[in-house]
């Protein structure tokens, strides 16, 4: 943003936009039924963060059980949900921070710190889920952690990367606001 001379007024909304994309990915992960799926036919198992569904044969009915009956299911859902809520709070704070004409760079660094906390909670939920699911629930067939679980990891990685950007942005305050004279690499004969 700074190195290549992008104007601050044109690119000030890039970081809040990326946070918004992270929020969308988090919603997909929370609502998606593809945390764990059968890898091959016949598809006999499908799980989300909230429930595990099975069917005995190809044409049979799905029977679902809630994962909230397990302590680890509640812990995984709670920690991932706390991380998601912190991400939504960071998104709202970033909108406020970048909407103000005089940018408060210490406020932006605080958003970066909060993003790191959100990433810790999200990663805790993303680690608890597969470890306890595979050890405590009987799985039939060949299963894989699927697309919704991948969206959860994408959200956590975005929280970490955007945390670095928000924390490092205040180091370039003068360049962003245009308070530095340009340096010309010109040598006179």
Automatic annotation (TrEMBL):
Pfam families: PMP22_Claudin. It comes from the Eukaryota. One of its GO terms (cellular component) is cytoplasm. It is a multi-pass membrane protein. It is found in: Cell junction, Desmosome; Cell membrane; Cytoplasm. Keywords: Apoptosis, Cell adhesion, Cell junction, Cell membrane, Cytoplasm, Membrane, Transmembrane, Transmembrane helix. The chain crosses the membrane at residues 12-32, 77-100, 107-131, 151-172. Gene3D superfamilies: 1.20.140.150. GO terms for biological process: apoptotic process; cell-cell adhesion. InterPro entries: P53_induced, PMP22/EMP/MP20/Claudin. Its main location: other. Belongs to the TMEM47 family. This is p53 apoptosis effector related to PMP-22. It comes from Tyrannus savana.
């Amino acid at each position: 943003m700074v190195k290549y001379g992008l104007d601050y007024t044109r690119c000030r909304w890039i970081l809040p936009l990326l946070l918004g994309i992270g929020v969308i990915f988090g919603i997909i992960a929370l609502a998606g039924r593809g945390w764990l799926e059968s890898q091959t036919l016949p598809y006999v198992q499908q799980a989300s963060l909230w429930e595990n569904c099975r069917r005995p044969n190809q044409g049979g009915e799905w029977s679902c059980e809630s994962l909230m009956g397990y302590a680890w299911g509640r812990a995984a859902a709670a920690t991932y949900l706390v991380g998601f809520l912190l991400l939504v709070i960071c998104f709202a704070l970033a909108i406020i921070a970048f909407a103000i004409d005089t940018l408060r760079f210490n406020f932006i660094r605080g958003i970066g710190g909060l993003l790191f906390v959100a990433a810790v909670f999200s990663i805790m939920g993303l680690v608890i889920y597969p470890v306890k699911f595979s050890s405590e629930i009987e799985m039939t067939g060949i299963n894989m952690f699927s697309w919704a679980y991948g969206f959860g990891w994408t959200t956590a990685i975005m929280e970490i990367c955007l945390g670095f950007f928000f924390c490092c942005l205040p180091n370039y305050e003068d360049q962003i606001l245009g308070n530095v004279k340009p340096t010309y690499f010109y040598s006179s004969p």
